[in-house]
Write a structure and sequence with these properties.
Elements: H1 6-9, H2 12-16, H3 20-27, H4 31-35, H5 51-58, H6 67-79, H7 85-94, H8 109-119, H9 121-130, E1 138-143, H10 159-175, E2 179-189, E3 192-200, E4 204-209, E5 215-220, E6 223-231, E7 236-240, H11 246-261, H12 276-281, E8 294-305, E9 313-317, H13 321-327, E10 338-347, E11 352-358, E12 362-365, H14 370-380, H15 389-395
Antiparallel strand pairs: 1-7, 1-12, 2-3, 3-6, 4-5, 6-7, 8-9, 8-10, 10-11, 11-12
Helix pairs in contact: 3-8, 6-8, 6-9, 7-8, 8-9, 10-11
Length: 396
């Protein structure tokens, strides 16, 4: 999501984008705060609003700025966009929240977001959280330990299950001094199901400077949204942590296994990716001759790691790493086992993609959806370890 400062959220230009009646409804519960900064809201909802005075009051240097108003403004402005109109309409329809003005029109996307915030703020927060999914391209992957992929089906209303899972996760977060009060949203998308996990990070302290020359400190917990992606066909769990920590990865996998599948340690630390094909077959490992979707593949980065006392690493980076190594007489088979590689794909439609692999469990794709075509290519060439019967048939 886009980053907005409080100043940009409360500028007269931003406030003018709101329907004035809806803006009045949003600000009315905070009339006392506004009045303390020399801004009085009209008693009549239909009256013109003093946008300049409101903006000045909202941008005042005041540690008592209403947190729920700041949350509301940020959520509404970031969610009230053309891209999310359909999601807002669908959520409002399910909750029987009217999106119509008196004249029968729906107004702008920001007006629709404001209406839903005023009626059911938790729904617009969910849409706001779900909108972050397309931005996630890097997942750490984990496979089911069981040979047979367990049956996966969320209940019609998964809220109770998500609350129980969040409570389990809170215990781990508190033990590591992270913020509790976790919220988990389940977002089905075909064979994929996304779980958005929102919680607090460790406390942070920031010094502040006031207009009167005094200083103070603000102690707060930054909000964190971690994304879990489960592929029910492959039995694969993808995990994207905003603030990576090994204990958090294990906590999410363990609590998910128990709550959703009733199986302990379903997603183990077993390997998903390997760069052995590059080490063993060199350029032949990325040969794409006859592939229906991939025109060419080149190796643009290669990382090798020495597991000796120095624990050193070498990163080769070139337009074509294989050609670079050839020109210098470097045999890739003489190098240590690669631990990271970046591949550049040119597709048959002339578009370009990249995929970065880090053994044993990390893949970064350039675009959402690339893990289908490119993932199948990597599976066929042995970069992805086949686990399911279908995958083994595809490699054979």
């Amino acid at each position: 999501m886009a980053a907005h400062s409080l100043r940009s959220l409360t500028s007269p230009a931003t406030l003018a984008a709101f329907d004035l009646g809806l803006l009045h409804d949003l600000l009315a519960p905070h009339g006392t705060y506004l009045a303390s900064h020399e801004c009085t809201l009209p008693a009549n909802r239909g009256a013109d609003l003093p946008l300049q005075e409101i903006s000045s009051a909202l941008m005042a240097d005041d540690p008592d700025f209403p947190a729920d108003l700041a949350d509301g403004l940020a959520t509404i402005v970031e969610t009230g966009t053309d891209r999310l109109v359909a999601a807002i309409e669908a959520a409002a329809r399910r909750a029987n929240v009217s999106m119509r003005n008196v004249d029968g029109t729906t107004g702008s996307p920001i007006d629709m977001a404001t209406r839903l915030w005023l009626a059911r703020p938790e729904l617009i927060k969910r849409i706001h959280a779900e909108a972050s999914i397309p931005a996630v391209k890097r997942y750490e992957s984990w496979r089911c330990r069981d040979v047979d992929i367990p049956t996966f089906a969320l209940p019609a209303d998964p809220e109770a299950l998500m609350v129980s899972w969040a409570a389990d996760l809170d215990a781990h977060l508190q033990a590591h001094h992270f913020g509790i009060g976790t919220r988990i949203f389940a977002c089905p998308a075909g064979r994929l199901t996304y779980f958005l996990i929102r919680h607090g990070a460790m406390l942070q302290r920031v010094s502040t400077h006031h207009d009167d020359g005094t200083t103070a400190a603000v102690v707060f917990r930054p909000a964190v949204t971690d994304v879990v992606r489960y592929d029910s066909a492959a039995g694969e769990l993808g995990l994207h942590l905003q603030k990576h920590a090994k204990w958090l990865s294990e906590a999410i996998r363990t609590t998910l296994s128990l709550r959703v599948f009733s199986l302990p340690h379903l997603f183990s630390g077993e390997r998903r990716y390997t760069l052995a094909p590059i080490h063993e077959r060199g350029e032949a490992a990325i040969d794409c001759s006859g592939h229906p979707s991939v025109e060419s593949v080149s190796l643009s980065e290669l990382e090798v790691t020495y597991s000796d006392a120095e624990d050193g690493k070498i990163l080769y980076r070139a337009v074509d790493v294989f050609a670079f190594m050839r020109s210098r007489g470097i045999q890739i088979s003489d190098q240590p086992q690669p631990t990271g590689a970046k591949l550049k794909f040119v597709m048959t439609d002339d578009s370009e993609r990249t995929a970065t692999l880090r053994a044993p469990n990390v893949a970064v794709y350039q675009r959402l959806g690339d893990d289908d075509v490119i993932g199948n290519f990597l599976l066929e060439r042995g970069f992805i370890l086949a686990e399911t019967e279908d995958e083994r048939d595809q490699v054979a």
